[in-house]
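Box 3.1 A note on notation
Throughout this textbook, protein chains are presented in two layers. The first layer is the amino acid sequence; the second is a token string describing backbone geometry. Keep the layers aligned when reading.
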Amino acid sequence: METVAEQVTRNCVNARSRQNREKDKAIELLDIQISNNCLNENKILILNADELSVSNNLTGLIAMGIAAKYKKPTMLGRISPDGYLKGSIRGREESELKDFKSFLKGSNYMDFVEGHANAAGFSIKESDVSKLYDYANKELANVDFNEGFYEADFVIQGNYSEITQLVMDIGAQQKLWGQQNDEPVIIVENITIPKSQVQMIGSKKDTIKFVFNGMTYMIFKAQDIIDQIAETPGDTLNITCAGRANINTWGGRTVPQIYIDEIELKESCIYDF
């Protein structure tokens, strides 16, 4: 019999799946808008949601999906009767532009933009949209939005004290993932580890395994990453990775793991003062 916790989880997953289907359909329509109007040539995207048959409550979620797909700060709204485009913004704090809201305010074209730095509501005169495009293309000409972005459900630090419990909780719901239920993506930042503690295992020695803060991390078919590790200067790595929760049970032991899909390697710099 299904427990209350399992029922709540299933209901949440089903609701999320419905939202994702609506989001994906909306993004398909916005893809056409972007393509037909050559909007991807711009540094930001300003899109009209009038043709989308979705609730206004999903505007932010759809804007986030577009920002993730095109790797650009995105504004998505509907035209009001008085000629204003009103909706939601989603920025990319991983880029040099850490605060999309403040950037828009600084343009002096916004009627208003209020909320968080990269997730806010906005209003702009429809007639000022082209001027905002010109402003953004000029001011952001040297900003590269293609670096360091991965859409995730959880973003945590490597030394997070409850990381093992989080992974165990997510991994315990594995039977719910698949078909139309997306498996949660976890980003773990600032894993600092000596190169000597990174193991190459498997018959071909092309599987990476390392342990940090009680969490086991695995990367399969990782020869290119092994080469990157060898080429990274210094003896210590600073790792940011995106992956999926897994629970490995063997020999009477239960080991929480993260299977890594994407990884960023940096030399860890330690200074003595």
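DSSP finds six helices and twelve strands in the chain. Residues 4-36 form the longest helix (33 residues).
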